[in-house]
Amino acid sequence: MSLKTLDNALEILKFFTDETPAWGVRELAKELNVSHSIVHRVLATYEKHGFLAQNQVTKKYVLGIKFWEYGQLVQKRLKLIDAIRPIMHRLCEDTGESVILTILEGIEAVDIEIVESPQKVKYELTVGNRAPLYVGASSKVLMAYLPEEKRAEVIEQGLSPYTDNTIVDPNKLIVDLDNIKKQGWCYSRGEYFEDTFGISIPLFNKDREIVASLSIAGPSYRMPEEKVQEALHMLEKRGKEIQNYLSQIEVHQLFQ
User: Where is each IclR-ED domain found (predicted)?
Assistant: First the structure.
């Protein structure tokens, strides 16, 4: 199928609205100024795959069960974020630091929800920020739980330094990732941005596949090493609450 054919097929779906939920082949072809045989083939293909259904009396097409199924997935994702957000706010209150929910997308880390610290000096990011998996706590804790071939794929893309503390030696990085996986959490200082810290824990789906990380982050001076364990305890406590939601869902990419 060419991109133009796909564009035309998707354009047809835009005509199924609250005002006009049902369409016959000829009336839709007239509206689109397209041959009715072309419209019929497209509608029949959609029907075959469950995206449209044909009323056997009127012969008109309406949206099918597949859209309802996908709608349920979207609704579940939105409800999931709504459930997680209050927990992130409580973690922010616990620690006084910014809280970040990061997902694994391919071989990148994407921040999809952020609760900023109320303090004047704080770690600031924007939703949608992307980072490589080898740098910073929220990313490295994701990479640590990837299969070896996925780790290798990240390394083959190249390891560029963001700061003097970024690990760019592949062997050192692998050792670091193995240690992160063994202990079950990650602590980093100044790897992605200078003078910042991050503490992160992994989050899994029902199949125990890594899908996300939960992190706290802020200026390094507020998190000396002697305070890390206390902060980690608060992070793990809230992380368990979030994990309870994720463990009930049987999809591989929970937030996409």
Answer: 66-248
Contact partners, residue 152, CB within 8 Å, separation at least 6: none
Task: Write phi, then psi, for 165 (nearest 5 degrees).
Answer: -95, -5
* Side chain identity at residue 157, one-letter code: Q
Single-letter amino acid, residue 189 = R
Where along the chain do its domains lie?
A: 3-63, 73-246
User: Which among 148, 129, 255 is positioned nearest to 192, based on CA atoms?
Assistant: 129
Q: Quick one: pLDDT at residue 166? A: 96
Of 107, 103, 155, 106, which is closest to residue 129 (Cα–Cα)? 103
Residue (of 213, 216, 217) closest to 243 by Cα position: 213
**Looking at residues 160-184, what average pLDDT do you find?**
96
Give the pair of three-digit tokens for residue 117. Answer: 């610290």
Question: DSSP class of residue 131?
Answer: E
Q: Which class is 73-246 in CATH?
A: alpha beta
Structure tokens given for 115? 């609760």
Please report which helix (H) or strand (E) contains residue 53, including its range. strand 52-54
Q: Is the pTM of this model over 0.85?
A: no
Residue 73, both tokens = 């997935």
Q: How far apart are CA 45 and CA 29, in angstroms?
A: 16
Please give the Cα distance from 160 to 136 (Å, whole number). 13
**Residues 229-255: tens digit of each pLDDT:** 999 999 999 999 999 888 876 544 455
Fold of 3-63: Arc Repressor Mutant, subunit A (1.10.10)
Lateral strand order in the sheet of 108-115: 130-132, 108-115, 98-105, 210-219, 196-204, 186-189
